[in-house]
Amino acid sequence: MHHFPYRHVDKTKITTVAEAEFMLHSGGKQDAYAQFVGVLGPFEVIGEKRARRLVSYLKDKTGTIELVWFSAIHLIQKILRPGTPYIAYGRLSSFQNKVQIVHPEMELWAPEKLAGKSYLEPIYPSTEKLKAKNLGGKQIGNLIQALLPQLTPNDLPENLPANVINNLKLISRFEAYQYIHFPPSQQHYLAALRRLKFEEIFMAQMRLNLLRSQRHRFSKGVVFEIVGHYFNTFYKNHLPFELTGAQKRVLREIRNDTARGRQMNRLLQGDVGSGKTIVALLSMLLAADNNYQSVMMAPTEILARQHFQGIADLLKDMDIRVALLTGSVKGKERKSILQGVSDGSIQLLIGTHAVIEDAVQFKNLGLVIIDEQHRFGVAQRARLWEKNEIPPHVLVMTATPIPRTLAMTAYGDLDYSVIDELPPGRQPVHTIHRYDHERSLVMDFLKAEIAKGRQVYIIFPLIEESSKLDYENLMRGYEEIKTYFPEPQYWISVVHGKQPAAQKEENMRRFVVHDTQIMVSTTVIEVGVNVPNATVMVIESAEKFGLSQLHQLRGRVGRGSEKSYCILLTSRKLSNDARERMKIMTATTNGFEIAEKDLELRGPGDIEGTRQSGMLNFKLANIVNDRSMVDAAKKVCEDLLTDDPDLMKPENEPLKLYLQSQKGKTIWSKIS
């Protein structure tokens, strides 16, 4: 029942030859399909070798139509009987001014077939293996056609509340399943599609909203009652710049969440460089004011170190203890940090996955901040919950803006905040698209920038299928770059996936401290490294990157006050899709617009973090094309749960029963 057809064929009416001739010769649709009834004429084989074809005709009262077969000629001659009435169905074409059908579908005519079929015929997807077992699209159709009459409305009970069905003028669930397979007309099919798409989106929203409303009502959370000494001192005396309106709004949302006694689970989205870290820091100071510890978790050691240095610098004149814990912190230093965390003297801990190890015991953890959320699995986040009697508040930060529709569908159980303004003094990165043959001009431009004391990134794509190819590509590119930038005048850092971690860290460190002017790398720098002095990024074979990846990479430059550039180098042969991506990248630096475009071009399954959420495996709905339906479903869902949070009212009984029957689908209790 849930194997839906991907299109329907209209065999509901019989066309006459005269009508078909009129249609074709009056400039009608060239690829129209039609069905004819007539007597089959004699066969004739025309042409030699590869040009051989079998020709016959079908004659009705108004004229004759030519039928042509290019393959299975002997078989056709065996099966079909000239002089017998047949129904022929196929695509009309015109050859030497005659109407013809190539490879028509033929079936014997009988008087009861006079008016054509009473429904649109479904075409089902199948696979090679199924076809080998004689289960092609047609056979699947026959099985479903035999099954449908045996079903009653009790077999497909309603799962939506009656008032929802009435308000939205949806057809019943039983009818929807009948009409999605064998609709009497196109209108019936569209009504079925609308009903089943809505149901899919609505159920996904319902599961997420139930989790969220349970959390809002029942989860206990530590209470941050006061805004005190740490927060105020920092805000008044040490804040390096005036907060933007968006940052203030997000802080208010966090402040409200943490004061209610319920656990906060907030997704903070901000474009590259929008100042999420300062919001995170102010939230941690709020926790410290209320005698709670905070932990900030980053996906890589370099990123953790950068957060630590940035935050330690900002807090250097304040009496607050910040520590860094990563895999490379060993011996006495590690012991002293673990001691400080467990006795509460370390108020802010920053680190990598190391912070969720069992050895790390907090005195009273109140706030967890996770940077670059899609790098952390659901299970890893869960381990942080157990670090305190009352689960700590959670703030998840991501620099890959998620389009609103997707956020509502994939992260509907997190409350989300958006920072949509750039801090003052940040200049947008100037993006340029250049073709391969202009490479020497690009290299001259890099030399000019380096002469001004700036630094440069050159990025090579990862080709997922082959790490060997990646490595060769990178090395070939590196050799070529060395010919443009010879040592000792220029120094180059190379970073790629095959290097031991220590070497990778060292090469990145040299670039960060300006020992080297050029960083040649595969996409490992995508997440977070902050080098304000780097003003140019060259992306080789930019057509091989997705939009959000290009945007993430571009965010590595433009972090200082100097004018920055991103140069997209591509070959001249570009697909339409790649050309569109280059156009979008040069036209806008707004991550949210780019994410929306990315969603349209690639579909939801490829966007970071949605694959693991499994929330988007819709059979019929498509969150890009059905955006208005996602909005409607979300609203209906929220109204329903506001009115009846536990689905106790009799009219919501069908919905509750349905959700309970779908046990396995309701995801990971209270986590992601």
Automatic annotation (TrEMBL):
EC numbers listed for it are 5.6.2.4
Q: Where is the Helicase ATP-binding domain?
A: 257-419
Return the Pfam families for the record: DEAD, Helicase_C, RecG_dom3_C, tRNA_anti-codon
Output the Gene3D superfamilies linked to this UniProt entry. Answer: Nucleic acid-binding proteins (2.40.50.140), P-loop containing nucleotide triphosphate hydrolases (3.40.50.300)
Per the record's keyword annotation, is DNA-binding included, yes or no? Answer: yes
The record, for InterPro entries, names:
ATP-dep_DNA_helicase_RecG, DEAD/DEAH_box_helicase_dom, Helicase_ATP-bd, Helicase_C-like, NA-bd_OB-fold, NA-bd_OB_tRNA, P-loop_NTPase, RecG/Mfd
User: Domain Helicase C-terminal, which positions?
Assistant: 441-600
| Catalytic reaction annotation | Couples ATP hydrolysis with the unwinding of duplex DNA by translocating in the 3'-5' direction; ATP + H2O = ADP + phosphate + H(+)
Keyword tags? ATP-binding, DNA damage, DNA recombination, DNA repair, DNA-binding, Helicase, Hydrolase, Isomerase, Nucleotide-binding
**Its Gene Ontology molecular function terms?**
hydrolase activity
Q: Which domain of life is it from?
A: Bacteria
- Top enzyme class: isomerase
Function, as annotated, reads: Plays a critical role in recombination and DNA repair. Helps process Holliday junction intermediates to mature products by catalyzing branch migration. Has replication fork regression activity, unwinds stalled or blocked replication forks to make a HJ that can be resolved. Has a DNA unwinding activity characteristic of a DNA helicase with 3'-5' polarity.
The similarity comment for this entry is: Belongs to the helicase family. RecG subfamily.
Q: What name is this protein filed under?
A: ATP-dependent DNA helicase RecG
> What are the leading ranks of the lineage?
Bacteria, Pseudomonadati, Bacteroidota, Chitinophagia, Chitinophagales
